[in-house]
Structures are given as structure tokens and as C-alpha cells.
Amino acid sequence: MCRVGALRRTPLFRTAGMNWEQARKLLFHKRHGAPLKGPALAPRRDIDELTAVRAASICIASGKGGTGKSVVTASLATLLARSGRTLIVDADMGVGNAHILHNLSPAHSFVDVVEGRLSVREVLVHARPQLDLLAAGSGVSRMAGLSNYEMHLVACGIESLESDYQRVLIDSAAGISMQTVAFAAASDVVLIVTTPDVTALTDAYAFLKVFTQRRADCVPLFVVNRATDETEALAVAERFRAVSRKFLSREPRSIGWIPDDRAVVRSVSAREPVVVAEPESPAAQALQRIALELQQEIAAHHARGLGRQLLRTVGYTPKSA
User: Which of 42, 198, 209, 275 could form a disulfide with 284 if both were Cys (CB 3.0 to 4.6 A apart)?
Assistant: First the structure.
């Protein structure tokens, strides 16, 4: 049973007019350095978990496969890890490949979690300094459509360890499945990766349309990958924004572009992020600029907690809670 999920659904948090901050103060009052009196309000481990600082979460998404989403995630995670502990969550549950770009062959994955063999912490693997990975299944079709109970297990597991990190990057599955959109909706920041290809743009728009129906308060970011030059990248970005303005009355914000660079192909073959394999290449330099933009975006958001938000999205309540 997930203690956090059970506590979150107690009547205390449904009291009219009471927000999370007010509830937190009632549960664990730290004003003047002293907790509230009384045994019922004494600090406990589960209360500490509720009030812990959460990692900022960034979902790297795309409308279709083949846009370079995993390549972008691998490099951005590597760059962000240089300034604080970072976690990659491979949310492409059935055909995950985030481990490949870090030259890893994990013995365990989310498959072990949803089948009840291991906890999320037990499937965690170390990728490089200050960077860890939660691997997805590979060739496990049923993982693409997890039940609410299975998503609850994943969410509880992520929540149990995300306070150990400063940032969590979600390498999401392509498309607009409920599972994919749930991870994006639970994230603080969403970065869409598209290419100049018309099918990639069409599918990026489809993802944006579905996502904004779930998160009207969120302004997604996007990057144009594999652009021939800056002129093409800017034209593609403007086309994407214009269509979104016209039909969705929403405008995603561009935070850069990545050139079509053979260094990326070579780095994938070497099973390394391009920012490690060829850090001076045009693609790596572009990714460094995008990482700086992301850091500024993260700083402007309050970290809500990926696991906690997933629990709210899933809406599953254990019978024993």
C-alpha cells in the first residue's frame, strides 16, 4: 500500500477552502522551529515524505517516433546532471531504449515493478556521475497499456525516491495514448521534439491538442530537431506556432533547434549521448544551449512532484487505504 496515496485522500485534504500549504502546516508546523503540540500531530516519517522537496520534472515528448526524442533526453539529462542529481524515467514502457544511449544493459525494469517482484528503487541503475535511470521493458507489449493499479505502483515508486534528485526527465512514449499523456500532464515542464518532416509536425500538433485538454495551465516548449539550417528551423517553428494559435488558441514556445548532424548518428552507434561522444559538434553545442534554456524554465516553476501528480491522475485507491 502506498502511504502517500492513502494520506492524500483523507478528509483533511478535502476540507473546503483548504489548500496544500495550509494542510501541510497543520500536519507539520515548523514556524519558530517547533512542531504543533499533541501526539496526533507529532512529526512522522510519512509526513516528512509528504513535505519533502521534490525534483523538478521535465517530460520529453513527441507526436511520432523517430524524431530523436530519446537522443535529446539522453544529452539533456547528462548536461543537467552536471549541476545536480538527475533521474531518467523511461516511460516508453513496452519498447524502452533509454538505456542504450548510456551503454547499459539493466537486469531489471518497470516490468519487475508492475509484476510485483521488485520495488522501483530496486530497479534503479547508475548511468554516469549524478545520473540514474529507471529502465522500461523491451518488447513487452502489455506494458504499453498499464492498468490503474499498475500505474499506481509506478507512481508510488517514483514518489518514494524523487526527493533524492533535483531533476527527473521522462523519456516518454511517442503518440497520444492515455498513459503517455498522463506522464506529460503530471510533469512540471513539457518539451516537444519535432522535425521539419510534415508527418512529425502533424503528430506533434496532435499531441499538443490532446495534452492541452488535460493541462490548460501549461505552456509546452518545443525544439526542432534535424533542421538543415537556422532558416528552416525558424520557418518550421513559426508554422507550428501559427497552426496552434489558429486551431487551439495556444502557442507553444520554441527554446531552440538542433542541426542535422552526423555526430548524432556516430554517438548512437557508440551508445553514448552526443554531448559526451562529440561535445564540440554542432548538435552538442545546440543541446547545451537548450539545456540552459531548460534550467531557466525549471527555475520559474514550482516542483509539484511527478509521483504525487501521477497518483492524482491515476485515481486508484487501494482497498486497505
Answer: 275
